[in-house]
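so im writing up the methods section and need the Citrate transport protein record in one place, dumping it here so i stop losing it
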Amino acid sequence: MSKFNSPFRRPWMAEQGAAAAPAGNTGVKGIIAGGITGGIEICITFPTEYVKTQLQLDEKGGQKQYAGIWDCCKKTVKGHGFFGLYRGLSVLLYGSIPKSAVRFGAFEAFKNRMKDDKGNLSPVGRLLCGLGAGVAEAIFAVTPMETVKVKFINDQRSAQPRFKGFFHGVGMIVKEQGIGGVYKGLTATIIKQGSNQAIRFFVMETLKDKYRGGDPKKTVPKLVVGAFGAVAGAASVFGNTPVDVVKTRMQGLEAHKYKNTLDCAMQIWKNEGPAAFYKGTVPRLSRVCLDVAITFMIYDSFMEVFNKVWP
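--- predicted struct ---
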C-alpha cells in the first residue's frame, strides 16, 4: 500500500511540505463553518425535534397525552402558545453551535488523514470519518446538550414545571444529580451519534463522489447537495431510531427506572413491544431529512466562501 493510499496517511507525509498547510486550514474552516451552520439549522427545525421527543416520552401503559403528531402540536400551542413548540430551544441553540463545530471539524481532520492523493475517500474511509465525527460530538457536545433538552421537555409535561430557564434548569439538575446528571445516556448517545454520522457522511460522500465522477474539485450544485442530504438523513433515521428511543428514555426525568442502557432497551421490548423502538419515526424523519439537507447546503456554502478568501 502506498503512502498516498494508506488510511492512516498524515498531512506531513505529502511529497511537498506545503501540502500540510491546507490540511490544517481545512480543519479550522470546518470548525467555523460547522458552528455557524449548527446555529442556523436548529432555529429552523426545532419544532419537529420537540414533537418527536414528546411522542417518545409518551410511554405505553402510562397516561398517554398525545394521539399523534398533530394532536401534540395542537395541545402544545393551546396550552403554551406557539412558542411552546420551541420549549428547550435555548438548550439546543447553546449546544448546536459547538456540536456542529466538533462534528465537521473532526470529520475534516479525519478526512485529511485518510484521503488519497486525489483528495478522495475510500468507502471504508467515509464510514470511519463519519463514525469518528459522531463519537467526538457525542462526547464533547451532544450528550450534555441532549440530556438537558430532554429533561426540559419532560419537565413541561409535569402539572407544575420546575425549570424556569436554561441556567436555572441546569443548576437544579447539577445540584440534585451532580455533573453526571447532564451525562445520562452517554453510551446510547455515542452509539446513536456514531452510527448517525457514519451513515450520513458515507451516503453523502458517496453520492457527491458519484456526481463528481471522482473529481473532488468539481462543484456540486446546492440543490443537489440538499437532495443528497435528505437521502442521507432518511438512511440514518431508519438505521438508528431504536437507539434514539433508548437514548431519549435514558435522558428523561424517569431515567431512574432503568439500570443502564441495555436494561432500558429490554424493558421497552418487554413492556411495550418492538414497535415502541420506532416511536417518533415520522416526525424524526421529517426533521432529520430537512435538518441534514439544510446543514450540508449551508456548510458547503460557507466552505466554498472560506476556500476562496482563505486558501
